[in-house]
């Protein structure tokens, strides 16, 4: 679907923050010329081409759209439902083992539209959706997600995530703590590497590069402890063949660090290295419980990391060593994670938290991330992690026009106007976003969606949510007996020393 209202658009007289590599991270007064979706001119007082639509942007800030490097659309209907749970216990209800009834295709469409709408409204033009849809993989269901994102006009990498090892074999002390009858219940039939590869090849033939090239498929084996080597290597090979990310969760929690010691005799990162699973296609979500040796291997391989600070804080997972990652030359992006582990998809919230929390270190605030570093992670760093740095993430001639326009006079975020870059990170929450353009098309203009009936979609969703949540409450009850078992696993892991300590100061 394409809805360019004019082939040539000139955004005139704006303060433009390009975020281009090697340029100072400061806005300057400029015009932006867009032709057939691509930026063809950038500078002061550009000539107006014949037939151009002129967008007057005095008093506005034009900058690249933000890139959300890691989210799970599967959680979108569970926002605000849980608190004070570590990951392993939280998973029992947000990704239940028993009684799960996947949403029908219309609910799946509505859920995906809600992801796109919240993202776009808060200035995000590109998302990496680690879509997880157990118990099986269906082209029609994945195609519904692609279709919804096309309908909204957003840019997205979308996976069909998978784990294919018995769950209790992916968890330290799982076989010791869980009774035999429960173990038998949790040992579900699993998808093999050949079956998954066949499915992925079908996706690449039918859905990949749809939506005028905005929508791509990515490989997403859930985590090295959760997948067989054969599956991970098959995904690695497909990622290389199609030049898409290999998106995986790495060392999110302390329990996972203990699990790595028990399963692999040491680091998951070294395990990946030994099996040829580290390369520039790899996007690691979290990377909290990593060591200096891990960082060296990651830097040598050229991997990217999605720092999901708010989800890590809410689930008590710990703090990734982001300053050391950056000092090693590792590309860092920012992600919200899902709307059940974070509760919003507003990436501006993540920017502020990233800057603030990075300053709360043993070495003091001067070791924290600067506003420029945070903005880079949210734009060009995210684009690099998505393997789209040549397409999006900065405003440069030749790139696609993925940009946002902020009204600097809206509300109080920029009043008084002291330092735009600092205020973007510390003051803005997305409410100043006035217009959003993806691939040269306005998907939000002057505060209104151009492709979507926002009120109608929300009304339909609200009508269906009571029944959905009643069913989910029943599912929660069916899985509640697992909570104390996982609590015991975590308690045992907490008594085991690990190579990295990542807890917040008490």
TrEMBL record:
InterPro entries: Amidohydro-rel, MTA/SAH_deaminase. Signal peptide: none annotated. It comes from the Bacteria. Residues 61-440 form the Amidohydrolase-related domain. PANTHER family: AMINOHYDROLASE SSNA-RELATED, CHLOROHYDROLASE FAMILY PROTEIN. Belongs to the metallo-dependent hydrolases superfamily. ATZ/TRZ family. This is Amidohydrolase. It comes from Pseudohoeflea coraliihabitans.
